[in-house]
User: Fold this.
Amino acid sequence: MASSRVGRPSVVILGGGFGGLAAARALRPAPVQVTLIDRENHHVFQPLLYQAATAQLEAPDIGYPLRFLLRRHENSEVLMAEARSIDATAQCVHFSGGGSIRYDYLILATGAQPSYFGHPEWRTHAPGLKSIGDALEIRYRVLVAFERAEQEHDLDKRRTQLTFVIVGGGPTGVELAGAIAELARHALKRDFVHIDPTCARVVLVEAGPSILAAYPKALQQKALAQLARLGVEVRMSTPVRSVDEHGALVGDEPIAASAVLWAAGVSGAPIARSLGVPLDHHGLVPVAPTLHPPGLPNVFVVGDMAALVQDGEPVPGVSPAAIQEGRYAAHAIVDELRGKPVKPFRYWNKGLIATIGRSKAVARLPGNVQLSGFLAWLLYSAVHLTYLAGLRPRVHVLLTWIWSFFTYARGARLITSPMEEEKGAQPYGQLSMKTSILGSQISHSPPSGST
Amino acid sequence: MASSRVGRPSVVILGGGFGGLAAARALRPAPVQVTLIDRENHHVFQPLLYQAATAQLEAPDIGYPLRFLLRRHENSEVLMAEARSIDATAQCVHFSGGGSIRYDYLILATGAQPSYFGHPEWRTHAPGLKSIGDALEIRYRVLVAFERAEQEHDLDKRRTQLTFVIVGGGPTGVELAGAIAELARHALKRDFVHIDPTCARVVLVEAGPSILAAYPKALQQKALAQLARLGVEVRMSTPVRSVDEHGALVGDEPIAASAVLWAAGVSGAPIARSLGVPLDHHGLVPVAPTLHPPGLPNVFVVGDMAALVQDGEPVPGVSPAAIQEGRYAAHAIVDELRGKPVKPFRYWNKGLIATIGRSKAVARLPGNVQLSGFLAWLLYSAVHLTYLAGLRPRVHVLLTWIWSFFTYARGARLITSPMEEEKGAQPYGQLSMKTSILGSQISHSPPSGST
Assistant:
């Protein structure tokens, strides 16, 4: 048991994502007492979340217990709890459970959540991809769709089951669309008797005029060509007008689909409102180059939650930015405690990279270097392996990637989570709702010849 | 797409466990049309389920998609559906979804479920260990208990959070108790600030006079000694009289506990009742040496569901028995179709083996050979690796075991499933009940010195 050092200034970090974790790590040698608070017990490696959602990686490859990551930090403790509000005057964070914690410094790193453009009711029908729970939900919807299609004899309904709409042409949307197309075209190819999974339809919808808006035109074209080769239909300049249990209204065309997945926009976590400062129209906290919200010199906002403008351009909501900001906040606290002057934060853009399917990617590197195809994919793999936390996940993810590169196999194809949910809620021996939806068509099923 | 062969006799297999899967595999070259039906999409490697429940292995290590396992079987298809009842007269299985399927031969391999001795209401408070969902539920309860204890300041309540009761001294109970004790003593040892996980109390309760009743006396003694070394309290000849949300009444002693886990007894799956034959007092189907229930010559019952007596002793509910019975049923069908006489089934006892903690085991081998300690554990590991389905899980499990043998680390420590369950059910941005239970004590928390 590490002992808490009474008398040291307390730093409370809300959120164990890239920003919060980077701050906690940078504070390890500092003469402060750190409390890292997250409602989950684990850090999530968000850039690879889409691979968990499409049965390529397993949850423990991309989620690591925060306690384990910080176990050698003598001055840190981890609390699994949900923050409800911040009282910036009393320097206090309140929890949903009723408790609270005081802080001398607060690092707010709670990130962003999917934004449904004023239609929160769409969320039920179009899950976003922010947590491991989200990834498992998406994996469930996609895998069950193939199971249902296999039992469906009405051809229209079968086509609906095999249609997937992905909303949002940013990196997450592009990566999800490519991974689902490849799951259908390769991994599941030979597994069914009544359906041909390679006929699955994957539609990627983007309201703006181009996908991967942050990338140069040439790379956008490359990405479009790579998506086309995987059989993904891309609709640009096409807003999604509504989403319900049957599918989505894409521009003027209703597309019946078994799953609509949301990768279209983000807004700040609701706790930002309690800070008492004006938020931007995405619900993010505008911060000065010192990462302070106006009038709150002992609060830092880092990561996706911060709206920071540098050289006239917004700093993007990507993990390198969150890491750099988290580290900056930690060093700023140490400098201030030592009476040293605090320099403003500078974001160093390391470039952007996104994968399309199993072996292709596009990358924009510093110095206006552009890369695409297999080489970009190798770079992508190397960069992400480097940033994964710990030797074990690195080795495992590397082996998994090598394995599936050669076999197209997806190791993580279990349908568990939401099914078990219902089973658990019912008296033992009763039947699960979702499984029982399956099976309703089976009487029409061909096999038995002697009947 | 494999084509169904019209005109061939249809074999319906209910259940994709060891028995059902062995039958499907043995039928691969047979001139029949096989339909394997399971309510999950995966086969579960039950002997290692306790390792998934205690964060040693990940779900995909021990669960494999049935479709993938049977993808090269030209004469087989897999249906994910829940069977509701069997109409043996019409030779028909009905599904919860309303559909049905006819059969010429039925192999009933739906296995057993935990039996609460007439108290089904205990199940909510004392989950059993039969599916991957069960394993994730147990993992959740155990890991969250440590998180809650960390935030608890009342010493009595903290002790309750760190108390785990395992009911049933068979192999599952012994393995669970050993694995939880080791999780607390080693894997979590350094991860907390306010609690000492090594003080966790693990109580193993057995109503009968000895643990591992199927093992020789000497091995039982060895197992007791190994459990004692791990700090597990064992209570024998002590029935559990009640279970509720606070813990269990163990003999005359109420034990307050954060989790009560059930490994005490099994009963047949409810679908057995619809067969129309008398069941034994565990709800299992008494079968002849040909594995037929009385009067149903085209139905085979295999695995845990079958009550079979051989040489005056019941054939045990272990995976080798299920595999042998599944293969027997397949070969019996082929022999019958070829007009060959069908020999009765003979169970070949390969021995029994159970692990206790990270590097100890007890084994009873054929020829009355007994083994215990590290050597038995090596044998255990080799046997289980051999029986795992597929190269990928084998390599992964082997690497995981080697890794955790040297580091005591548990890779699969994510708290996800049941938490996400509730989050999903609530409007976005609202707080999860279970997380909010955490955090209620935080105001009392020591750290901040300057307040």
